Amino acid sequence: MNLKILFTFSLLWLFNGAFSNNLNYKILDGEWEVVFDTLNKSGSHNIEDIKQIFDSIEPVKINVPSCLETYRKDYEGVAIYRKSFFVQEDWRSTNIEIQFEAVNYIAEVWLNNEVVGTHKGGYSPFSFRINETIEIGDTNTLFVRVVTPIILTNQRIDGLGRYEVPSWRGAINGGIWQSVALKSFGKIKIQDVFIKPNYKDHSVVMELEMENTTESKKQ
Predict the structure, then answer these.
(1) Which of 143, 141, 25 is closest to 91 using CA atoms?
(2) Do 111 and 10 belong to one domain?
(3) Which run of H or of E encompasses 7?
(4) 196 and 181 within one domain
(5) Could you identify which of 80, 177, 205, 214 might form a hypothetical disulfide with 187, taking C-beta atoms 3.0 to 4.6 angstroms apart as the criterion?
(6) Are residues 38 and 8 in the same domain?
(7) Does residue 104 contact residue 177 with C-beta atoms inside 8 Å?
């Protein structure tokens, strides 16, 4: 292997090692609570209404990740998840994101009564920065409102309904069906890496996209 290429990959490995030492995860998988909002009372997208639903409907214990159909056969519509968790003191002064590997199909996320984001798409991972909403050294409460794919019924929720062209439907389909985690990392982060090889002169160019959220940014 060309020494230039070897040096480039060695440099990338060193960068990755230096920044990953500050990376910590808190897995939120396991037991959550869920209510099936069959009347879409949460359609106001208001956190107070969502909390009211949890007070009026007996929640079901559900394991995350999993699909809603394993708890209610052929369910289509809205389900609201709730999870409480504690964040340790050593995460203070770090950047924190909540990361979902996949939720099918529409996901709205609230943390400690504040909206942190919305995502559409059942198979792609997504994350939100939650520095301003998370409580360090205290208990946090997470709500996730999910609109499942709608294939069997004639409902239309948040613009989502049956396709004009008939579609397949798996036996298990909707909900938080992949892992959820909190991610804590330092003030400097590698966002993306792009490596451009040049076969003519046996060289590579490595481009790094970095985020620097330190108070005094140095070049």
Answers:
(1) 25
(2) no
(3) helix 3-20
(4) no
(5) 214
(6) no
(7) yes
The sign of the torsion formed by the CA atoms of 84, 130, 144, 53 equals positive
Neighbours of 9 (CB within 10 A): 14
SS (H, E, C) 39-56: CCHHHHCCHHHHHHHHHH
Residues 6+ apart with CB under 8 A from 74: 152
What are the φ/ψ torsions at residue 97 (nearest 5 degrees)?
-130, 150
**3-state secondary structure (DSSP) of residue 174:** coil
Condensed to tens digits (0 to 9), the pLDDT of residues 177-194 reads 999 999 998 766 666 677
Q: Which one is predicted more confidently, 196 or 100? A: 100
Nearest-angstrom CA–CA distance, 209 and 190: 6
What is the value of pTM for the model shown?
A: 0.80
Question: Is the separation of the CB atoms in 67 and 59 below 8 Å?
Answer: no
- The domain of 9 spans 3-21+190-212
209, pLDDT greater than 70? no
Q: Tokens 């909707």 correspond to what residue?
A: 174
**Angstrom distance (rounded) from CA 110 to CA 96:** 15
CB atoms within 10 A of CB 170: 11
Both 64 and 13 in one domain: the answer is no
Residue 79 pairs in a beta bridge with 36, 146
Domain count for the chain, please give it: 2
Distance, in Å, from the CA atom of 169 to the CA atom of 151, rounded to the nearest integer, reads 7
How far CA 168 is from CA of 64, 86, 150, 172, in Å, comes to: 24, 40, 11, 12
